[in-house]
């Protein structure tokens, strides 16, 4: 009798342990999508508060999976359908296309939260800080250095090229990448991007920036020194005369209610060969002002 009870107890402990492992993995996938195998290559940690948790039925199904199926316990186990019958080795799946999301001034990588969630099933995603704009950064902003940093991302993600999405200042950096390394950019998306502000516009912006206190700018997420460096770099980095050299398929997106931005978008769309243009309701920061509208355009333009 003692032996029988011991065996029953041991079996129950093993079953509880297996269910606990599966439950913990289900919760980890829901709370930390950056640890999920499908999201392993994200350079952006998604806000867990906005990620949908699996419903109760899905969680129960996960916990009741066949304990003798190794794939129900080990998510990294080999799928037999991916094994080459001749060599016995697992077939390597080609890496997903890479999409690089470049934030605007006054934003941060997590500003692309909604776009990461919308694109994660079909793409690798990188949403890095622009060098010189990260809080506490020691480097001053420089357009050439910022673009050069991002040109290295395909190598680190195991692909030969990338799609680039840039908003405002991020779009200007994206233009420079497309001009300097045309073979590196497959598709280009420019959101509320001004290719080349006039000297008068830059002077007005510089004067307004000089009058604003550091505290007021910081409340908007803007570092005054970095903003001044951006204006100085944009005055020296003129790409407007080279727009006709861009080879990538290009989508230009602008806010419908912003006359200045829509005029700039029209110039981009009519100068870049083969470019198309779309208008969306919302303010300058469309990735947060109208995420659903922007996501729809990105999916339709970028998805193979």
From TrEMBL:
Pfam families, per database record: Abhydrolase_1
InterPro entries: AB_hydrolase_1 (IPR000073), AB_hydrolase_fold (IPR029058), AB_hydrolase_sf (IPR050266)
GO cellular component, one term: membrane
Gene Ontology molecular-function annotations: hydrolase activity
Chain ranges of the AB hydrolase-1 domain: 97-242
Domain of life according to the entry: Bacteria
The keyword ATP-binding is annotated on this UniProt entry: no
Compositionally skewed regions (Polar residues) per UniProt: 74-85
Region (Disordered), start-end ranges: 60-95
Keyword list, A-Z: Hydrolase
Protein name (database record): AB hydrolase-1 domain-containing protein
Organism: Parenemella sanctibonifatiensis
């Amino acid at each position: 009798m003692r032996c029988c009870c011991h065996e029953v107890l041991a079996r129950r402990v093993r079953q509880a342990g297996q269910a606990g492992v599966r439950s913990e993995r289900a919760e980890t996938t829901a709370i930390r999508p950056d640890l999920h195998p499908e999201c392993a290559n994200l350079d952006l940690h998604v806000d867990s508060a906005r990620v949908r948790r699996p419903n109760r039925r899905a969680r129960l199904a996960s916990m009741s999976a066949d304990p003798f199926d190794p794939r129900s316990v080990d998510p990294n186990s080999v799928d037999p359908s991916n094994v080459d019958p001749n060599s016995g080795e697992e077939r390597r799946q080609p890496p997903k296309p890479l999409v690089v999301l470049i934030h605007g001034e006054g934003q941060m990588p997590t500003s692309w939260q909604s776009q990461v969630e919308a694109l994660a099933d079909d793409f690798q995603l990188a949403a890095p800080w622009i060098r010189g704009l990260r809080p506490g950064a020691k480097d001053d902003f420089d357009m050439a250095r910022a673009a050069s940093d991002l040109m290295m991302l395909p190598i680190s993600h195991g692909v030969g090229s990338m799609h680039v999405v840039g908003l405002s200042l991020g779009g200007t950096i994206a233009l420079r990448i497309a001009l300097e390394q045309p073979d590196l950019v497959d598709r280009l998306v420019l959101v509320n991007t001004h290719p080349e502000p006039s000297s008068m516009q830059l002077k007005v912006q510089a004067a307004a920036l000089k009058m604003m206190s550091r505290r007021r700018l910081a409340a908007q997420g803007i570092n005054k020194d970095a903003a001044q460096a951006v204006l100085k770099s944009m005055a020296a980095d003129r790409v407007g005369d080279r727009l006709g050299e861009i080879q990538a398929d290009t989508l230009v997106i602008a806010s419908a209610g912003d006359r200045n931005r829509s005029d700039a978008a029209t110039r981009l769309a009519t100068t870049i060969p083969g470019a198309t243009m779309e208008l969306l309701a919302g303010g300058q920061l469309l990735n947060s002002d109208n995420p659903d509208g922007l996501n729809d355009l990105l999916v339709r333009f970028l998805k193979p």
